[in-house]
Amino acid sequence: MLYRLSPNKLEKLIFPLKDYSKQEIREIALKIGLEIHNKKDSQGICFAKEGYKEFLKENLKDEIVRGNYVDKDGNILGEHEGYQFYTIGQRRGLGINLSKPIFITEIRPLTNEIVLGEFSELFIDKVELMNSKFSVEYEKLENLELLARPRFSSTGFYGKLIKDKNKIYFKYNEENAHNAKGQHIVFFYDGFVVGGGEIK
């Protein structure tokens, strides 16, 4: 989320651990007797100790309602526990067996439907951005080849920014399956963060 900060705010940030690798920090923690030195890396919600499902149940309560799994044509395939528990691209933990690998390709909150499909249906070559923010003038970036990282674990994909009327898109050089609505995508040029936005 650092891409959303202005240059004058970034200048004032201090990262005391910036010169250390994660492994070096673990070794320091071991030397000074911290029990968490060998704790597994977490990709979940750190403040939801009981897991994200229990956290959502406690905070959303009656908003969570069971709904239907459907295919892209609207045919009902089964029932899900509530769309809030799922994410685009998810394969495990769906509670449904269709005798072939299936993935979540779309989530429809208004109808409480989750669309299932094959992995190939997740591949796209363009995303629309919303709430975008750039550290340099957009016009200076438009014709540059940028590295886009739609997930923190992604090594990135190259492409270019495109403006069509008042909308901004990122056009990948090749299709990929790493995009999901609401997810943040960050752009790099020559190793530096130049901006980002949310995938619409």
Automatic annotation (TrEMBL):
It comes from the Bacteria. The keyword Ubl conjugation does not apply. One of its GO terms (molecular function) is sulfurtransferase activity. InterPro entries: MnmA-like_central, MnmA-like_central_sf, Rossmann-like_a/b/a_fold. GO terms for biological process: methylation; tRNA wobble position uridine thiolation. Residues 53-117 form the tRNA-specific 2-thiouridylase MnmA-like central domain. Pfam families: tRNA_Me_trans (PF03054), tRNA_Me_trans_M (PF20259). Keywords: Methyltransferase, Transferase. Its EC number is 2.1.1.61. It is an enzyme of class 2 (transferase). This is tRNA (5-methylaminomethyl-2-thiouridylate)-methyltransferase. It comes from Fusobacterium animalis ATCC 51191.
